[in-house]
Structure formats: C-alpha cells, structure tokens
Amino acid sequence: MKVFLAILLLSLLTSCYSVERKCSDFKTGTFEFTYMLNGVKQTSRFKRTKDFNIDYHEGKADSSSIRWINDCEFILKKLHPTSNSEKDAIHMKILTTTADSYTFEYKLAVKRPNKPLNTEQGIAKKID
Q1: In which domain of life is the source organism classified (predicted)?
Q2: pLDDT one-digit tens code per residue, 87-112
Q3: Is 74 exposed, middle or buried (0-12, 13-18, 19+ CB in 10 A)?
Q4: In the beta sheet, which residues pair with residue 31?
Q5: Fewer beta carbons within 10 angstroms: which end of the chain, N or C?
Q6: Cα(102)–Cα(125) distance, rounded to whole angstroms?
C-alpha cells in the first residue's frame, strides 16, 4: 500500500511539470550554434528574419527560406543548394527556451524511403 501511495504521489508531482517554451522570442535575431563535425568542435553564426535564415560559416553565407508551422516549429529550405542532399527541407522544432537560448531538434522534413529518419539536437544562443 505504501508503494502504491508513493507511486501515486510521484506521478502527481511529475505530471504538473511543464517545460517553458517562449518560442516567439526566438523567431528573429542573431544566434550562435556549436556542434561537432568529424570530431572537431565548430561554431556557426546565423541570422533569422521573419522569412529567411542566413548562416555564416568560415566566411561564407548560406541562405534558406523559413516557413513557420507554429510558434515553435518551422521548415528550412536552402535557396541555392549545391548538391542533391541540400535540396531536402529540414524540419526544426524548438523544445525548450531560456532567457537567451533554446534547445532544438532537427530532421529531414520528408522521410526518404528505406532509410531511417535521424533526429539531431542542439542549443542555439541568442546574441542579438
């Protein structure tokens, strides 16, 4: 009986917990994103406007269009893809937010036949 009451109490306490998401604070601005590429830590900076996302990496700019699904999800599509893989749209979802950063996950917007759909996560920090 004590175990049942403990489980009930624990489930009641954890069910009241909700993750804060103020996604509208991150719809526009300048951000930094750190990631690993071939075992090397890389930092990328990007600027997001209402309709576009401009990535700056190693002195090059790369632009994508943005189509917002809701306040916390959007689709990125490269404006000038240089390969077939860059033609694929990316689905971005903001999972949690803080005062100056957000945690997100991203994956291909459309699943390729006979291939697993990989989902990656990252943290972007707002710098302006």
Answers
A1: Bacteria
A2: 999 999 999 999 999 999 999 988 88
A3: buried
A4: 46, 126
A5: N
A6: 7
pLDDT interval class at 13 (50, 70, 90): low
Q: Would you say 64 and 52 are in contact if contact means Cβ atoms under 8 Å apart? A: yes
First-to-final CA distance of the chain: 55
Separation between Cα atoms, residue 93 and residue 103, nearest integer Å: 9
Question: For the chain, which residues make up each domain, given as ranges?
Answer: 19-126
Class of domain 19-126 (CATH, top level): mainly beta
* Digit-coded pLDDT (tens) for 19-75: 678 999 999 999 998 888 888 888 889 999 999 999 987 788 899 999 999 999 999
Nearest to 66 by CA among 13, 123, 27, 16: 27
